[in-house]
């Protein structure tokens, strides 16, 4: 159907636009609460907000845990491991350029998983586009942070491990959602994802010895509200629809557009520099996404 094909083409761009704002919102909240404490609050509030929405739209309310176990695994991977192990090292002083480069491997890893375990095809366009996208991400980050990526004193094995866990969480979450959650109802699956994520982030907050003290400022409340309604409900439900309708490898390629968008948004909102090298990298990212999605399945 034409409308189906149009949605497949437009929805990913809407998603990455929404998703990119999460990093800007995080900038307003990183100093108000520890990472996993903040995520636990965000996931708990999202769960509470979804309850009346489920009843209002007449969706099926989840009953039992076992039948929703795959949704809960996806929630743990996407909303706890990915977000937590991206925010936590940045909070501890790891340069965001280093984190972005490592996370930039996610589309390549997801494509490999999808090809090995789901049977998605590997064309020259997809492989070349994904590799080109990683090059584009690297150029954007180097243009932003310099050739040293702002790294001073080296990167500890523990910090590197956190970044890799974040990478595995995102790639594994997208792959797992596509392979095991095809039959899940959107809102029913979403609320079970957030229940699992709330429990997991609380556990990690205790494990890392985070403080549960939160500095409630106006900017923090606004940032938290946007992350609950705009991201955890709006963007994530949209992502679930996109994954259900499209290929995991193609969907993951859209994440190459997130860092360039964050750089642009930070330039206009915070006055951060936007150099010619970063602009060149953004252009390469756009070309890579075009190559991967040149012949989308409709």
- The tally of structural domains comes to 1
Tally of individual helices: 12
Helix content: over 70%
How far the N terminus sits from the C terminus, by CA atoms, comes to 7 Å
* Classification by helices and strands: mainly alpha
* CA-atom Rg in angstroms: 18 Å
The average pLDDT score comes to 83
> Can you tell me the overall shape?
globular
Strands, total number: 0
Biggest β-sheet strands, sense, barrel: none
Uncertain spans, ≥5 residues at pLDDT below 50? none
- Estimate what percentage of residues fall within beta strands: under 5%
SSE string, helices as H and strands as E: HHHHHHHHHHHH
Please give a quick description of this structure:
The protein has helices spanning 2-29, 35-57, 69-91, 96-103, 106-117, 124-145, 157-180, 186-207, 218-245, 248-253, 258-270, 276-292. The chain is mainly α and 298 residues long. The protein is globular and about 50 Å long.
Walk me through this protein's architecture.
This protein has one domain (2-292). The longest helix has 28 residues, at 2-29. 76% of the residues lie in helices and 0% in strands. The mean pLDDT is 83. It contains 12 helices and no strands. The chain is globular. 47% of the residues are buried. It is mostly helical. It has helices at 2-29, 35-57, 69-91, 96-103, 106-117, 124-145, 157-180, 186-207, 218-245, 248-253, 258-270, 276-292.
């Amino acid at each position: 159907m034409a409308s189906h094909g149009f949605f497949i083409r437009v929805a990913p761009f809407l998603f990455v636009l929404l998703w990119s704002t999460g990093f800007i919102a995080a900038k307003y909240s990183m100093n108000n609460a520890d990472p996993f404490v903040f995520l636990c609050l965000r996931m708990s509030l999202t769960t509470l907000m979804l309850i009346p929405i489920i009843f209002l739209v007449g969706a099926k309310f989840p009953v039992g845990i076992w039948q929703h176990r795959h949704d809960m695994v996806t929630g743990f991977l996407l909303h706890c491991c990915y977000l937590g192990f991206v925010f936590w090292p940045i909070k501890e002083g790891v340069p965001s350029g280093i984190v972005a480069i490592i996370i930039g491997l996610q589309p390549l890893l997801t494509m490999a998983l999808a090809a090995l375990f789901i049977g998605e095809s590997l064309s020259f366009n997809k492989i070349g586009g994904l590799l080109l996208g990683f090059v584009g991400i690297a150029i954007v980050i180097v243009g932003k942070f310099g050739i040293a990526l702002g790294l001073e004193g080296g990167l500890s094995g523990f910090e590197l491990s956190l970044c890799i866990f974040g990478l595995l969480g995102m790639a594994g979450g997208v792959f797992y959602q596509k392979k095991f959650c095809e039959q899940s109802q959107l809102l029913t699956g979403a609320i079970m994802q957030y229940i699992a994520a709330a429990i997991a982030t609380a556990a990690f907050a205790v494990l890392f010895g985070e403080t549960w003290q939160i500095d409630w400022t106006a900017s923090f409340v606004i940032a938290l509200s946007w992350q609950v309604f705009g991201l955890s409900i709006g963007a994530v439900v949209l992502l679930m629809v996109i994954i259900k309708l499209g290929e995991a490898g193609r969907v993951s390629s859209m994440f190459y557009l997130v860092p360039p968008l964050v750089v642009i948004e930070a330039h206009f909102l915070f006055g951060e520099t936007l150099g010619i090298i970063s602009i060149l990298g953004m252009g390469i990212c756009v070309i890579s996404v075009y190559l991967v999605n040149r012949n989308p399945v409709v």
